UniProtKB/TrEMBL annotation, chain A:
InterPro entries, per the entry: Hydantoinase_B, Oxoprolinase-like
One GO term (biological process): glutathione metabolic process
Molecular functions (GO terms): 5-oxoprolinase (ATP-hydrolyzing) activity
Signal peptide as annotated in the record: none
Residue ranges constituting the Hydantoinase B/oxoprolinase domain according to the UniProt record: 3-529
Gene Ontology CC, one term: cytosol
Name this protein carries in UniProt: Hydantoinase B/oxoprolinase family protein
Upper lineage: Bacteria, Bacillati, Bacillota, Bacilli, Bacillales
Any single Pfam family the record assigns to this protein: Hydantoinase_B
UniProtKB/TrEMBL annotation, chain B:
GO function terms (MF aspect): 5-oxoprolinase (ATP-hydrolyzing) activity
BP term (GO), one: glutathione metabolic process
Record-annotated Acetophenone carboxylase-like C-terminal domain positions: 521-671
Domain Hydantoinase/oxoprolinase N-terminal positions: 6-183
Domain Hydantoinase A/oxoprolinase, chain residue ranges per copy: 204-489
GO cellular component entries: cytosol
Name of the protein this chain belongs to: Hydantoinase/oxoprolinase family protein
Superkingdom of origin: Bacteria
Coiled coil residues, start to end: none
């Protein structure tokens, strides 16, 4: 790094360029994803495709490590005025990770030489496929998810390729909006190019090129310093998505090796790719942006001044084995990969927690479920579809403070919709939208509370969907004696004779008078709850987030009237054995893992590798069914038995 | 009694500024006195005393407008009333859940702002209205009073009432307010439909809660002030500035204090607008640089307004002049991070201990130390020479910084300015992009303590060619008080698609809003404010049906009731922003808005003298800038002849600030006393 004053100036200028690009998209982008969830991104890339600038304040900001190199190479012959369009995960080597994310790339030339690339993406509201919006968890093949566009020049030396444009737009349900969004992205690219030119004019090409090199190195150095402070070692962790093949959970497993200033992430032991759209195409690119965000977030928490670029993950290597959910073979479906992405964060947070005991939060709610309604307006006969609310839950407790109520880091960019706007738009009554009592994982620092949403339906034949519900069985884990958070639940007609638990909702038909209650997860607790300041416990009781019973049983705080019963509390607390358990996972997961230990799950995964991809999903669920049945009968099953079990099942199919 | 004088007083963090203009708009007095944070009114009394000494007849003051930071400070320091909140059953957590979104998703240790009302002081009330405004469950009066009693037992002295859909039907809120006032006359009570009847329960509730939280403090303050000023023979009614740049009676400001929270920066922009208009400039970006940051605002004929404002930790949807804080200020600390890279801010030294050169115990280098060391700031002329700066102390901290960076103290000082400018740039250009504006078409109008010192550096970085520094740049907010108009905003959340609207319905709603405005003006003028004329402006938030965002569309002042006209304007504006529109698609009217403006009598010839007549000999001084030595021309504003042109580097010493015109810019003084700098190339 040559000039450490210029570096700071250059860092600010680069940040200004990408933020300005993002604001151009924000101002002129069409889709609701731009305005409501900020699901778009702008980047400055080195000629090799490494991100040296990405916005922090505007748009989606957790995509450092996005691998653009393969796309840049695929085009090869870049000319001034070119703009390349693509959305295909498989053709871009995991640059795009589902089809709605339409990317544009433009080379920024100076005197005949590429100094940088500008890149933008926006989550389009529709790119075709089997459902409006293009994303359905039940898609099992990428062709069900919309049009695939391998990298191709939309503009060739400034000239629009109308055929390519037409092909794209004709395959979408909302061509005008998509064209509008593309124009917004192009405006952002032009702005970025102009600003980079100005920078070169002001400071000279050499200084700018050196600045790019230094800026990446600057971030790299800062992160290496952080990793140096993490004890060397191997740290294992795994967590689950629920309701995978055969109803079994889908495991995501990582071994994180820390050695000096380097991190290696081994995802061996993660489950095979699934016949649903939860797969993430990483192509096992090193430091892939769907694998590393938990690390990036941790680095930035430790040092908020690290420049926001891909230098932060240069020392991260990973191995996501082929044909797994984190590196599927073509043409696995990928639309609903967000659920997996959230859980990968939990896995890496867990692994890092083992390395850095007192730095990371317990698990948060770990879901972003979007509740939607479809009705036919009884008066106009028009069909109406609307979002009721995104439902997240509490964050995990932190080593020095409580978790955040109702909101989790993983989905922290989401905004809710005012109940008043929902009721004005849709024939429903929101009876309750608040925090869920007794949902937070207990702890010296408690988790964030989950959400309690109760909706009453007023019109006949209402269809409700609530996709991406997770952690309905396995609780958000607690740390160092902290308890688990409550799992999520959905209940129809709660408190009536017709009350029934709904489990995961895909589609639900409802009628006037029906109610649906969503109870979302509380975050896991941190530290032994018996060490929590009794005054804090009292405050939670007085504010109605904690029942008196829970205060006594979970925290050892007895209450009397408006205050604390000091002597009873002393007795409760003195007779408590301090709990320092590293992780608490809750009974459901422990129960599952009694049979399905790490070794057993690995054995299933390894056995499956002997069979063609097309059979694995079937063989996995049947083998697990069989093993469960045998275990029920009291038969001891060992990892070594799995190969044979599977072989028998294969043979029973009659296939050779 | 001849009551032609107009007095404007702006209470800032460090200084309280006062300005008196006569009936023709000529400024006859202007002064500064230290602010007294614990008793802000005392600084006003001090100012009045000084004005008396300057032979101003206080009794001749017919209009007294003042701006205070009391409300916003109360919020930021969290020392307002113990406030209780009444909400519709099922919505107890409206303040806790907010709009979900986290401020910073990359900080695992981050917090969401602590609500102004803790959960235990939020009571759910048995009542319910529907989105149509229809009553679904009537208000349970007994349960209401029971809840209030519980809150009173908890020590609550202020109550905010915010029921669902009260923007459509305020009945329950009004009934609740009435009952509470009847049973608990000592409580400060306000309703969300009274404060700001717009759909969106979180933002509306929050505005109501903020109002209750600061209400009694503000009321007490205005009472003390009104009584106090009478002793000086001031008979004029006290008026307060508002966040929307307008003014209103202090009585009303006491009951709607949430509308004053952003009044400080707003009056600066109003002052700037006045200066710009006289100088014949339509497009201006303001640059108000203080100790910790720079406030910027856009003026395109009129100041830009925003309904997406931030006060402390909280969003405010009541229209306010759109002011954004960016970058660094005069007190921002320069430091070197673990990788050896120079940073400026975000921490700053504040008034105590201040920059190292203040000799108040500060040991950290700041931008102000850098100005002094480079020779831009002059040690013996700070605050008209009242405060001696210590170049040796600045040099010492800069030498230390230079050692860390491996450079001379001069290079380090220049580096601080460059990095500070880059910080500002990094937030300024994205902001302008969001507004859809190319700042290079604009003039930078600088004020505030450090604004005139840094404005040209910023202009150079952004590519702005023209910079204007008004006379007495430290007291522009006080001028804003003097020239402000009565102004208030009204909203109605309609939420109807155009084909659902009855003929004439739009017009009726606007009439209804306009009537509220006229009634407001009538009540305000009863207090003795004379107006030149009054007018109404109409606008609507419109969107294509089904789209998630809307555009604010200004409507015709005559045909505001015409759906067709509103639609046409919407399509046109949509086209301008997005490059395309869908004239065949149905259009939804989300919010209807009216703004009433009562123009106060003022002449357009305000000419402002400097607060203190300084008389230095013209001289030259060596400064170091951009790594080179220059002989800068040192002068003050009075010595410049109107129209005479000078080339930078020029330093103009003012009472409360220093204007620095770097090489590459030339300057002239116009007939209003403005310094106007222009890029030479």
């Amino acid at each position: 790094m040559t000039d450490k004053v210029f570096l700071e100036i250059f860092k600010n200028r680069v940040q200004a360029i990408v933020e300005e690009m993002a604001n151009v998209v924000l101002r002129t982008g069409f889709t609701a994803f731009v305005k409501e969830t900020g699901d778009f991104g702008t980047y400055l890339l080195t000629p090799a495709g490494e991100t040296f600038g990405s916005p922090l304040d505007t748009g989606y900001n957790l995509s450092l490590g996005i691998p653009a190199g393969e796309t840049i190479e695929a085009i090869g012959d870049w000319k001034e005025g070119d703009i390349v369009i693509t959305n295909d995960p498989y053709a871009t080597g995991g640059m795009a990770t589902h089809l709605p994310d339409v990317h544009l790339i433009k080379p920024f030339f100076h005197q005949g030489k590429i100094v940088a690339f500008g890149m933008c993406f926006v989550h389009s509201s529709d790119v075709g496929g089997k459902v409006p919006g293009s994303v359905s968890p039940t898609s099992y093949d990428i062709h069900m998810e919309g049009i695939r566009i391998a990298p191709v020049k939309l503009y060739d030396q400034g000239v629009l390729n109308e055929q390519v444009l037409r092909l794209f737009l004709d395959n979408s349900r909302i061509p005008d909006q998509n064209w509008g969004d593309l124009k917004a992205l192009m405006a952002a690219l032009h702005r970025g190019e102009l600003r980079l030119q100005e920078l070169i004019v002001r400071y000279g090409l050499d200084k700018v090129e050196q600045g790019i090199v230094d800026l990446l190195q600057y971030s790299e150095l800062k992160v290496r310093a952080i990793i140096r402070d993490i004890p060397d070692g191997s740290y294992d962790f795994w967590d689950y998505l629920e309701d995978g093949p055969g109803g079994y959970p889908i495991r995501l497993r990582c071994r994180m090796d820390i050695a000096g200033e380097e991190i290696f992430l081994d995802f061996d032991g993660s489950d095979p790719q699934v016949r649903a759209s939860f797969n993430i195409v990483t192509a096992n690119k090193q430091g892939h942006y769907m694998l590393v965000p938990a690390l990036i977030r941790y680095f930035r928490t430790v040092d908020p001044t690290i420049p926001w670029n891909s230098g932060m993950i240069r020392m991260v290597r990973n191995d996501a084995p082929p044909a797994t959910i984190l590196n599927p073979e073509p043409m696995a479906a990928v639309g609903a990969r967000a659920a997996t992405f959230i859980r990968v964060m939990d896995v890496l947070t867990g692994a890092m927690s083992k390395a850095q005991a007192d730095k990371l939060p317990a698990a948060g709610a770990g879901q972003a479920c979007i509740v939607m309604l479809a009705i036919t307006d009884p008066v106009t006969g028009r069909k109406k579809v609307g979002v009721i609310q995104p439902i997240c839950g509490g964050s995990g407790a932190r080593p020095m403070k409580d978790g955040i109520d109702g909101m989790d880091f993983a989905v922290g960019h989401l905004r809710n919709i005012p109940a008043e706007a929902v009721e004005a738009e849709m024939p429903i009554l929101i009876e309750r939208y608040g925090l869920r009592q007794d949902s937070a994982g207990a702890g010296k620092y408690r988790g964030g509370s989950g959400i309690d949403l109760k909706v009453k339906i007023l019109s006949p034949d209402t269809i409700m969907t609530a996709r991406n519900m997770e952690r309905m069985q396995f609780q958000p884990w607690g740390r160092l004696g902290g308890g688990v958070g409550q799992v999520g639940a959905a209940i129809q007609n709660a408190g009536t004779a017709e009350e029934r638990s709904l489990g995961r909702i895909d589609e639900l038909l409802l009628h006037p008078g029906d109610t649906v209650t969503f109870l979302s997860q509380g975050g896991g607790g941190y530290g032994d709850p018996f060490l929590r300041d009794p005054q804090e416990v009292l405050e939670d009781v007085r504010s109605g987030l904690l029942t008196e019973d829970a205060a006594e049983t979970l925290y050892g705080v007895a209450l009397a009237g408006q205050g604390i019963d000091e002597s009873a509390t002393a007795i409760l607390r003195n007779n408590h054995q301090e709990n320092m358990e590293d992780f608490s996972f809750g009974s459901k997961r422990e129960q599952f893992e009694q049979l399905w230990s790490d070794e057993m799950q690995r054995a299933v995964g390894q056995a499956l590798r002997q069979y063609p991809l097309a059979l694995r999903d079937y063989l996995k669920r049947r083998t697990m069914d069989k093993a469960e049945a045998l275990a029920q009968q009291g038969v001891q099953i060992a990892p070594d038995d799995i190969v044979k079990l599977m072989k028998d099942i294969k043979c029973q199919t009659g296939m050779h | 009694m001849e009551q032609g004088y107009r007095l404007g007083i702006d209470i800032g963090g460090t200084f309280t500024d006062a300005m008196v203009a006569d009936a023709d708009g000529r400024v006859v007095a202007s002064l500064k006195t230290p602010s007294i944070p614990d008793a802000p009114e005392q600084a006003i009394f001090n100012a009045l005393e000084q004005l008396q000494k300057a032979s101003i007849n206080i009794a001749d003051i017919g209009l007294f407008v003042h701006g205070t930071t009391l409300g916003v400070n109360t919020l930021i320091e969290r020392n307002g009333a113990v406030t209780g909140l009444l909400v519709t059953e099922g919505f107890r957590d409206v303040l806790e859940i907010r709009r979900l979104r986290l401020e910073n998703t990359t900080n695992l240790y981050g917090d969401k702002a602590l609500p102004l009302v803790p959960r235990r002081l939020v009571k759910e009330i048995d009542e319910r209205c529907l989105a149509s405004g229809e009553v679904f469950r009537s208000l349970n009066e007994q349960q209401l009073l029971q809840s209030v009693e519980e809150l009173v037992q908890e020590g609550v002295t202020a109550i905010a009432i915010s029921f669902l859909h009260s923007y459509k039907n305020a009945g329950h809120e009004q009934l609740a307010e009435q009952l509470i006032k009847q049973h608990y006359p000592e409580l400060f009570v306000c309703t969300s439909s009274g404060v700001w009847p717009q759909q969106r329960e979180y933002e509306r509730t929050l505005a109501t809660v903020m109002n209750a939280y600061v209400g009694s403090q503000m009321g007490g303050y205005f009472q003390r002030l009104e009584q106090g000023v009478q002793q000086y023979g001031l008979t004029a009614k006290v008026l307060s500035t508002m966040s929307n740049g307008g003014i209103m009676s202090s009585t009303r400001a006491s009951s709607e204090p949430v509308k004053t929270l952003l009044s400080g920066p707003a009056s600066g922009v109003i002052g700037a607008t006045h200066v710009a208009r006289m100088a014949g400039l339509n497009q201006v970006v303001t640059f108000d640089m203080g100790g910790t940051s720079v406030d910027v605002a856009l003026i395109d004929g009129q100041p830009a307004y925003s309904v997406d404002n931030q006060v402390g930790d909280f969003p405010v949807i009541i229209p306010a002049i759109d002011v954004t804080a960016i970058g660094a200020g005069g007190g921002s600390i320069a430091w070197v991070d673990s990788a050896g890279v120079l940073k400026v801010g975000p921490r700053s030294v504040g008034a105590r201990p201040g920059p190292a050169c203040y000799n108040r115990g500060g040991t950290l280098p700041t931008t102000t130390d850098a100005y002094l060391h480079l020779g831009i700031l002059q040690a013996d002329r700070f605050l008209g020479g009242q405060m001696e700066l210590r170049p040796d102390l600045a040099q010492a901290v800069l030498e230390r910084l230079g050692e860390q960076l491996g450079m001379s103290s001069y290079a380090a000082a220049q580096a601080i300015l460059d990095v500070a400018t880059a910080n500002m740039y990094a937030q300024f250009t994205p902001l302008m992009a969001r507004k859809g504006v190319d700042p290079r078409d604009f003039t930078l109008l600088a004020y505030g303590g450090a604004g005139p010192m840094h404005a040209f550096l910023m202009a150079r970085e952004v590519g702005i060619r023209k910079v204007l520094i008004p006379p007495s740049p430290g007291t522009l907010c006080a001028m804003g008080c003097v020239v402000a108009d009565l102004r208030n905003d009204f909203v109605h959340s309609l939420n109807k698609v155009s084909d659902e609207l009855q003929p004439g319905e739009l017009g009726q709603w606007f009439e209804h809003l306009g009537e509220q405005g006229r009634r407001w003006i009538a009540e305000e003028t009863e207090q003795g404010i004379e107006l030149d004329h009054t007018y109404l402006m109409y606008s609507a938030d419109i969107r294509y049906e089904g789209q998630a965002f809307d555009l604010s569309v200004t409507l015709s002042s005559e045909a505001y009731g015409s759906i067709a006209d509103a639609e046409a304007r919407f399509h046109q504006q949509y086209e301008a922003v997005f490059g395309t529109s869908q004239p065949e698609s149905p259009v939804a009217f989300v919010n209807l808005r009216a703004t009433i403006i009562g123009v106060t009598r003022k002449s357009e010839t305000v000419v402002v003298p400097a607060p203190v007549k300084t008389n230095y000999e013209a001289e030259r001084r060596t400064i170091v800038f951009d790594g080179q030595e220059y002989q800068a021309f040192i002068t003050d504003r009075e010595q410049l002849n109107v129209g005479e042109m000078l080339s930078g580097p020029v330093i103009i010493n003012e009472y409360d600030t220093t204007v620095f015109v770097p090489p590459g810019y030339s300057l002239t003084k116009d007939r209003f006393g403005n310094i106007i700098g222009e890029a030479e190339l």
